[in-house]
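Q: Fold this one first, please.
A: Sequence and structure below.
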Amino acid sequence: MIKSRPLLVIFRVVLGGLFVYAGVAKALGPLDFAQNIRNYRLVGQELSFIAAVVLPWIEIAAGVLLAAGIWKRGAALLISGLLVFFIALTLVTMARGIDVDCGCFGAFSRKSGLGVILEDGVMLYLGLCILLVAEKKG
């Protein structure tokens, strides 16, 4: 596990920034994001719209908190949990033979698949490094 304080700060800023960017991209197009959610064929239209309105703001808030170093472990836990969910959702979708736009970065998203799982896996590694490295009390 990474223990370098400067590297962990870089991880926080990068991961937090990615979540802010992704959240803003989705918040600017909630109807498009709702359709992306609906394409996974796991929830109905109403729930997909609610998720499309709420999820981006959760991502933005967690990203801002993480990048700013406020409630770092809580923000890292939330982001890591979201990433585990996103990875599982992508795997289930692939197993069902459904190839959809992941919706990860709004209009800049691409199809789901192994590339998305790899990207999310790298982000999950960053989140877990932040989460699991105990801060020195001093």
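Q: Good. Now the second chain.
A: Here it is, same layout.
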Amino acid sequence: MNRFTRLTLLSGVFVLGACATKGDLQRVEDQLVLSRQETARRDSAAAASLADIMALQQRILDSLGQGQRRLAALQGSLQSFKGDMNTELYNVQQQLVQVQALTGQSQQRLTDLRTQLDARSEQLGAAARGDAAAGAGDSTKPAPAGPSADQMYEGSLNQLRRGSPGTARMGFQQFVKTFPSDRRVADATFFIGESFAGESPDSAAVYYAEVAKDFPKSSRAPSALYKLGLLAERAKDPAAAKGYYQRVIKNYPASDEAALARDRLKSVGS
């Protein structure tokens, strides 16, 4: 092979090598372009997702802010409502007190009128009977100035049953003062204690103790002792309550209150 032939072959090989290198570079460039496009597409999608997430987060924060503002407004309204309700409740209580006072006065007035009418009717009836029996005899004897013991006692008891303890108390106190030897003085004293039970336990205890001391043979005595035990329990004095219950059981073993006292002793300690 001569020199010319070698040069020709070498030139052809070089040309072929050069052509192969350009093709590979073109493919590499194409792949790079595609990779960049895919990366750009992914970056765009990620940016869009991130924007959506940030927008959602902002909406959540806005909703939380609105919720907090609404909650604060609701709490303010609730506090205002509580204040208004407390004021209204106080006003209603004051009105109830006034109504109860007026009702008690009205009931007392009605009771007085009723007892006066009953007493007047009794006087007229007694006068008529005296005229019929004595003919032309003297029937002008003075009648009692006030209601009878029965009228005063029953009227006061009715007031207590109707829920007017203040009116009932005045009636029973007047009964005890006017008829100190009546067989129902122990009952009246006990009911005076009952009229105090809801508003002044200490005053009630004074009258219950008076019944237990001054009228030990009365049927109200075991009730009074039992009531004293209940009041002592409410006053957080279990020792005193125990003593009263034991007195009921010892002194009045056959009474209904003795059975109740035994049950109460189980609570305060026998």
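Q: Anything worth noting on the second one?
A: Residues 93 and 99 are 10 Å apart (CA to CA).
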